[in-house]
Amino acid sequence: MRRLYLIIRAIPKTIYFNFKYLPFKKAIKLPIIVSHRVWLMKSRGNVNINSNVIKPAMIKLGFGEVGIFDSMRSRSVWNVSGTVNFSGTATLGHGIKVSVEDEGKLNIGNNLIVTAESSIICRREISLGENVMISWQAQIMDSDLHPIINSENIVINKDEPIDIGDNSWIGSRVILLKGVKLPKGTIVAAGSTLNKGALKSIKEKENSLIGGEPIRILKENVTFKV
Q1: Gene3D superfamilies in the record, alphabetically (predicted)?
Q2: Is the residue at 208 inside a domain?
């Protein structure tokens, strides 16, 4: 009954969102379902679904349940004036914040799962591979948001792209900063903070568990199950 209630409440924003962003032949199938608890703060830019199969509700925005959060009072934010590219199915859970600025590009691989209360802040380019899982309260940002200028009036902290390889798992409360590139099958331990400088100190390998302070490889030849 509750599921039916949530679907009914989602109808107005779902219709608006699909016909706002997608060509009619795709929009009529309502491939993106948008919860009534999503604040469409800014709905500009472009949303593309680059998939041969378009079906209803293949992309969910603001839905999902995580037992330690109150989804009834959790609000998601869509603040987009750049480009968001989907490659297939995706679940962006309740309380997620997505911010893509004018020149930003967010590339989302097939079968992305973001659980709850996470933030994605994109000013340049963030690429999430296929079968990527992002746990709760993670933060991914390719910019420092405020420029740092040296004595010669040169900005020294320019935005840098982030690339997360296929089949990776980003643990809860992980922070990924600009310039981070993770190989396929990377598992990032909960609470870790990764920047480009930290990753230079380790020899990155596929299917590794990384974390700690300083960041290091904790286990090799590992995988995970959803």
Answers
A1: Hexapeptide repeat proteins
A2: yes
Answer whether residue 18 is part of any domain.
Answer: yes
Q: Which positions ≥6 away from 8 have C-beta within 8 Å?
A: none
Give per-residue pLDDT as tens, 98-107: 999 999 999 9
Distance CA 60, CA 32 (A): 6
Residue given tokens 């994605």 in the structure block: 120
What torsion, rounded to 10 degrees, do the Cα atoms 101, 104, 109, 111 define? Answer: -10
Q: Got the DSSP string for 26-79?
A: HHTT--EEE-TTEEEEEE-SEEEE--S---TTSEEES----TTS-GGG--EEEE
Q: How confident is the model at residue 201, as a pLDDT?
A: 66
Q: What is the CATH number of the domain that holds 97?
A: 2.160.10.10
Average pLDDT of every residue of the chain: 94
Residue 163 has a pLDDT of: 97
Sign of CA dihedral 64, 68, 69, 71: positive
> CA separation (Å) from 206 to 16, 189, 200?
41, 15, 15
Domain count, the chain: 1
Strand order in the sheet with 139-141: 38-43, 76-80, 97-100, 119-122, 139-141, 175-176, 193-194
Mean pLDDT of 72-84: 93
